[in-house]
Amino acid sequence: AKRGGRSQVRLFDRSMDESARFRHSIEAGLRQAIAKRELEVVYQPIIAREAAEVVGFEALLRWNSAEHGEIPPSVFIPIAEESNLIHDLGEWVTAEALAECRRWPGHFVSINVSARQFRRQDFVDALAARVAAASISPDRVQIEITETVIFDDDARAAETLRRLRHAGFRVALDDFGTGYSSLFNIRNYALDCLKIDKSFIDGLGREVEAAAIVNSVTHLARSLGMGVVAEGVETETQNQALRLAGCSHLQGFYYGHPADADATAALALAGEAP
Ligand code: C2E
Ligand code: CA
Ligand code: CA
Ligand code: CA
């Protein structure tokens, strides 16, 4: 048992070492990715339930690395968040998304913002300056934050949210239901809408609880004056259930996969749900 234990320790050390090396090489690659033009922003349609039309797009980052191939954001974003890289990436995505948004009159763009970006003292002012420079009305720009942002530092986060709203931006709480927040403790934050996490949508039609959760979240959010976006809608069954529940917006492969900038501009001009 003792020998087994020791060799396990060695294996563990080696894999730690390998994962540290992997992180290091991702970080080094990411540092050059912007200059090497390896990054791209793709856009996924967001549909308004009542009008059944595309009203906006969520900007999602893609990295096609010459060294590693396609690396999903779920891998490189957390690494970027642990260094200052997330600031450069965030600024790059924002600049791209705002430039593209100008090609979609009447539609909004929704941009994911990490906790570290959000906590920067100049976050709101820098965003407002960029949006003004691009001559875009701030109400066409939605910022997506996660629950971590609020609960890490609630007094300052609440203040930043107020300033964002005051500047005219919309704010969405992403991945709702996966963290610690409940509708009770988010009611005092300035939020325009909740995005119900895909894990709850996945359960629709399979688990009774999923439908109950989606229904009650939607109902309470509406009574608090917030919109509800269902994300990760993949099937007709889910779509029907979500429409019945009264979600204000729908997003997912059922309506459209993330697409490149040109395809997105064409879709926005066509104006109809795919
Ligand atoms: P998220 O913000 O929750 O984005 C939704 C994710 O679900 C996206 O994955 C999207 O492609 C995927 N998705 C949308 N509809 C469906 C569906 O019907 N089925 C399935 N299976 N998946 C669907 P993606 O693009 O891989 O992004 C993963 C996460 O990486 C995002 O989750 C977000 O947290 C982060 N991320 C992506 N781009 C950025 C960015 O520019 N900045 C920051 N800070 N984070 C980003
Ligand atoms: Ca998001
Ligand atoms: Ca999400
Ligand atoms: Ca997510």
UniProtKB/TrEMBL annotation:
Organism domain of life: Bacteria
Residue stretches making up the EAL domain: 23-272
Name this polypeptide is given: Phytochrome-like protein cph2
Species name: Edaphosphingomonas haloaromaticamans
Gene giving rise to this polypeptide: cph2_2
